[in-house]
Amino acid sequence: MKKLVYIFLLIFTVSCTKDEAKSRALASGFFRGDNDSVFVEVGELQEDGSFLPSENSNVRISADGIEYPLTSAGNGIYHLTSDIQNTTNQLSLLVDESIKAESSLPPSIAPISMGSTTLTVDPNNPGIELFGLTWNNVEGYSFVLQLECLEEVKEEIPFAVPHGLFDSQFNGPIEESSIDLYDVDFNYYGQHKLTVYIIDSEYSELFFYRSRSKRNVITAGPDNVFGANGFWACTQAFDIILNVQ
Fold first, then answer.
1. Distances (CA, A) of 233 to 70, 105, 152, 201
2. Residue 219 — φ and ψ, nearest 5°?
3. Rounded to the nearest 10 degrees, how much is the dihedral formed by the CA atoms of 174, 145, 180, 112?
C-alpha cells in the first residue's frame, strides 16, 4: 500500500523529569495512504522557542508488527527507504524508546463525476464557473482541498477584479463531497494540481494551522501521542491535474 507521512517531531533529551519532558516535547504529523514517500522532522524545542534538529534519533514506522527504519537526510529530516506492506490500515510512529503514536487510515476517496480538466478563462468576463467535481462521501470525516500551480514560471491571469480566491474560499475543512471552481479562484495560467484529502474531523483543522513558533504548536489541537504532545493522523487523497488556458 502506498503511503505519505508528514511529521513534525520535537524530542527533549536534556536533563528534566519525565513530566517536564512531555510538557515540552512535540510529535505531530499526517500520513497519506495513497503515496509512497515518508517525511519526518526530528529535533528539540529550546527554551527560547528555537528548533534544534536531531541527526541521531531512532525513527521507525510500524505496520502489522514490522518496523521500517527511517534514515537521516540531514538537518533533522528522515526518509523511508523501503515500501510499507500494511494490510491492517493501522500505522504506528515510533521515535527512540519513549515516543509512540497510532492511527488508522480513513476509507479511500475517488472522483465520481467531474467536468473537463481544460479550463478556458476570459479575463474580460470574470465570474464564470469552470470546473465541477464530486467524490464519494464518507460519514464522520471531513475533506480538505489544496490547489497548487505547477508552473516554474508563473503567468498571472490579468483579471481586473480580485482573483486567486481559492485559498480564501477553502480555508478550512468542508463536509460536502462536491465543489465548483470559478475562473477567479485561479491566479495563474498553466497546469495546477487539485488535491482532495479525507481526514477524521478531529484533525482536519490541523491542515490549516500555521505557527511561527513551534512552542505554540504544543498547545494547539488534539493530542494522541504517548510520550510527547501532538497529533498523529492518517489521511487518504486523490489528485487532479487542471490546465488553465
1. 18, 8, 31, 10
2. -100, 10
3. -90
Q: Do 243 and 191 contact (CB within 8 A), yes or no?
A: yes
Instruction: Give every CB contact of residue 232 below 8 A, 6+ residues apart in sequence.
Output: 7, 27, 28, 29, 31, 93, 101, 102, 103, 224, 225
Q: What confidence tens digit (pLDDT) does each residue in 147-180 have? A: 999 999 999 999 999 999 999 999 889 999 999 9
Given the DSSP bridges, would you call strands 232-244 and 118-119 parallel, antiparallel or unpaired?
A: parallel
Rg of the chain in Å (alpha carbons): 20
62 forms beta bridges with 67, 92
Place of cell 479562484: 185
Distance CA(86)–CA(102), nearest Å, equals 13
pTM of the model: 0.80
Nearest to 43 by CA among 17, 25, 64: 25
The residue among 60, 45, 71 whose CA lies nearest residue 100 is 60
Model pLDDT for residues 59-88, shown as the tens digit of each residue: 888 888 889 888 888 877 778 777 777 667
Domain limits, the chain = 4-105+202-236, 111-199+240-244
d(CA 218, CA 212): 12
CA distance 2 to 85: 8
